[in-house]
Amino acid sequence: MNEKIFERVEKKYLIDESQYQAILQVIKSKMQPDRYHQSEIYNIYFDSSNYDLIIKSIDHPLFKQKLRARSYGGYDKVFLEIKTKLMGQANYEEHDNNLGFKRRVLITHKDYDKLTTHKKTVTELAQNNIETSHDVQIAEEIDYMINLFQLAPKILVYYNRESYQGADGLRVTFDTNLKYRNKTLKFHKNSRDRSLFQNDKCIIMEIKAHGFMPLWLVKILSSTHAYPTQFSKIGKAYENIIRKEQNV
Going by fewer Cβ within 10 Å, which terminus of the chain is more open, N or C? Predict the structure, then answer.
């Protein structure tokens, strides 16, 4: 499979510490830590001046897409990613399955600065980091999306991730310590960054699979009363920003 193009069913869960500990105990007996088991992830989301993409996403349309730049702590590379999601379109019995597609290209932090200062296009930058035959096509898609919606960096969301991998492409991740800001959008922390949740102990669990979830996973989710939810990190950050502005 091309590691820059992903297609999978995605489910998100908002869980507390006790649910996390119970689920994690089973996860560790059935799955293996992946090669990026403990990581710090920084996502800079692009949008229009009116936040058109985020607002549309919050309305839970059948089709939605977003553009983000992702970097990992200590890693001198940036993934530019188009994420597309078809809501409830996975052809499974549950209606809360979402089919997600992700297409991305890899550039350096220095190249990212050239993009955001309008010195280079993604297509031009991708020429320096071509790894697959799809890279130029994906870069052109990103440039088209930027120009069509007049996109620019708008919000940074970052967090710690713990991730596990299993058979048949199964992947489970736990995101904690979620923070955000909408100014000085660089891939680093700031002392004035805000927590995404009022309760800092809230954990986002995400299950990604290329097919049905195994029975053992279904059982532990049921016994811990962990239920899937339609949730967006960037949507939550946007709502927090708007709420803060309205209270000023």
Answer: C
- Residue 78: HSE in the Cβ half-sphere, 13 Å Cα cutoff: 24
Cβ atoms of 23 and 221 closer than 8 Å:
yes
Give the H/E segment covering residue 82: strand 78-87
Summarize pLDDT for 22-33 with one digit per residue, the tens.
999 999 999 999
Mean model confidence pLDDT for the chain: 88
| DSSP annotation of 198 | S
Give residue 2's identity as a one-letter amino acid code: N
| 124 confidence band (pLDDT: 50, 70, 90) | very high
DSSP state, residue 243: H
Exposed, middle or buried: residue 53 (CB in 10 Å: 0-12, 13-18, 19+)?
Answer: buried
Q: Which CATH number fits the domain that encloses residue 202? A: 3.20.100.30
Distances (CA, A) of 131 to 35, 105, 106: 20, 9, 9
- Structural domain boundaries, residue 197: 5-247
Find the radius of gyration of the CA atoms of the chain.
Answer: 18
Taking the whole predicted model, whether its pTM rises above 0.85 is answered as: yes
Report the percent of the chain where pLDDT is more than 70: 89
The predicted pLDDT at position 156 comes to 98
Distances (CA, A) of 71 to 19, 49, 177, 188, 235: 29, 23, 17, 10, 20
Burial class (CB in 10 A: 0-12, 13-18, 19+), 107: buried
Please give the tally of structural domains in the chain: 1
Residue with tokens 């229009």: 48
83-99 pLDDT, tens digit per residue, is 887 765 444 344 445 66
d(CA 47, CA 15): 29
